[in-house]
């Protein structure tokens, strides 16, 4: 049988495996930070209508610049982000992973480097590898906050072309204070003109505010967002960014023409018509997240402060054994490879109860 490594693949891909959490068929799946609530029926109806309309024109390519969708996303950001943005400030792609890929294709690439502060969202490093961008793993403190002095030193030493700041951070859950983001932005600009990408995939779940207002006067700052979490539409594959219009122009140098299908654009537009209902679920999930934090602590686990729709808990001498024991009780959580810690996504109250029952039992065994 021919294996990947028998093919003339790029050296940096040899011996590697594809990214992805296990998709196991178990009763309670709390491992990929999805929204547990299916889309409400009126929205399903609206999607059907919009897609039916779009289907009539599928002989044609879609709007290559997704103008209507970007306009509606800009309205959503203006309404919720405390900072006015227009169509020219927003770009959309198939999930924020593709947004990040386009940003690295534009601002990273061979001979260039990107830095992230780990543990963080591991796709940043993988997309760097896929785009030929060198990866630098920056430090964090023991409590998973960013060690600002060490981060500033790393930026001064490596002079990266791209700096990733994930807030709230995945998998740890904690938000990065705006002062830290600003300090890192200044350090990055002092080292060399570079792009700072703030990944706000989970911002709607935060106790704090979006960093969108920081965009004013900072063309080297980008905020990336997604409809996969708060909008409960992970299956849609719609991510977007907000930035200076020049950034939006720049990523168009690398985007594939017609990258966002007419079906995707129609579905996302329907979802944006139902923003208020969808954000109602966010409030429920925030309450459940806070309950998970409180109950996990009451059981005796350590929990990292969470501003996201998931919670990092531990500590375990062997996180993988604990993961398996929780799975044996029908609950799938995530082992991100952070030694001693696991991550659980906030589900419905019933799913969270099942999870809490499982970890209560596991606590007695470990
Ligand atoms: N950023 C972060 C921090 C994430 O956790 C995720 C999803 N797990 C993404 C980006 C990508 O999400 P999507 O491609 O679904 O928008």
TrEMBL record:
SUPFAM superfamilies: PLP-dependent transferases. Residues 1-24 are annotated as: Disordered. Its cofactor is pyridoxal 5'-phosphate. It comes from the Bacteria. Signal peptide: none annotated. Keywords: Amino-acid biosynthesis, Aminotransferase, Histidine biosynthesis, Pyridoxal phosphate, Transferase. CDD domains: AAT_like (cd00609). GO terms for molecular function: transaminase activity. It catalyses: L-histidinol phosphate + 2-oxoglutarate = 3-(imidazol-4-yl)-2-oxopropyl phosphate + L-glutamate. Its EC number is 2.6.1.9. Gene3D superfamilies: Aspartate Aminotransferase, domain 1, Type I PLP-dependent aspartate aminotransferase-like (Major domain). InterPro entries: Aminotrans_II_pyridoxalP_BS, Aminotransferase_I/II_large, HisP_aminotrans, PyrdxlP-dep_Trfase, PyrdxlP-dep_Trfase_major, PyrdxlP-dep_Trfase_small. Transmembrane segments: none annotated. Homodimer. This is Histidinol-phosphate aminotransferase. It comes from Streptomyces incarnatus.
């Amino acid at each position: 049988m021919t294996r990947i490594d028998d093919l003339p693949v790029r050296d940096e891909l040899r011996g590697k495996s594809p990214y992805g959490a296990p998709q196991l068929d178990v009763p309670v799946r709390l491992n990929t930070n999805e929204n547990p609530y299916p889309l409400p029926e009126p929205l399903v109806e609206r999607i059907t209508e919009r897609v039916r309309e779009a289907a009539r024109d599928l002989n044609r390519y879609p709007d290559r610049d997704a103008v209507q969708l970007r306009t509606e996303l800009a309205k959503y950001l203006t309404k919720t982000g405390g900072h006015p943005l227009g169509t020219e400030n927003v770009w959309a792609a198939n999930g924020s992973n593709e947004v990040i890929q386009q940003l690295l294709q534009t601002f990273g690439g061979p001979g260039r480097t990107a830095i992230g502060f780990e543990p963080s969202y591991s796709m940043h490093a993988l997309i760097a590898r896929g785009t030929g961008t060198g990866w630098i793993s920056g430090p964090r403190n023991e409590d998973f906050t960013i060690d600002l002095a060490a981060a500033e030193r790393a930026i001064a030493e490596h002079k990266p072309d791209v700096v990733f700041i994930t807030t709230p951070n995945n998998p740890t859950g904690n938000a990065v204070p705006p002062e830290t983001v600003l300090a890192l932005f200044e350090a990055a600009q002092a080292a060399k003109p570079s792009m700072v990408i703030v990944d706000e995939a989970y911002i709607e779940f935060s106790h704090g505010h979006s960093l969108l207002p920081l965009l004013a006067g900072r063309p080297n700052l980008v905020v990336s967002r997604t409809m996969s979490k708060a909008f409960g539409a992970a299956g849609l594959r719609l991510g977007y960014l907000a930035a200076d219009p020049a950034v939006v122009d720049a990523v168009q140098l690398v985007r594939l023409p017609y990258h966002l299908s007419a079906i995707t654009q129609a579905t996302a537009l329907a979802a944006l018509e139902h923003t208020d209902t969808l954000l109602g679920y966010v409030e429920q999930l925030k309450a459940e997240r806070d309950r998970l934090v409180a109950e996990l602590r009451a059981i005796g686990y350590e929990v990292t402060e969470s501003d996201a729709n998931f919670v990092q808990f531990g500590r375990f001498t062997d996180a993988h054994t604990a993961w398996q024991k929780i799975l044996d009780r029908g609950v799938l959580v995530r082992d991100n490879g952070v030694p001693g810690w696991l991550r659980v996504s906030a589900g419905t109250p019933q799913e969270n109860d099942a999870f809490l029952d499982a970890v209560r039992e596991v606590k007695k065994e470990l």
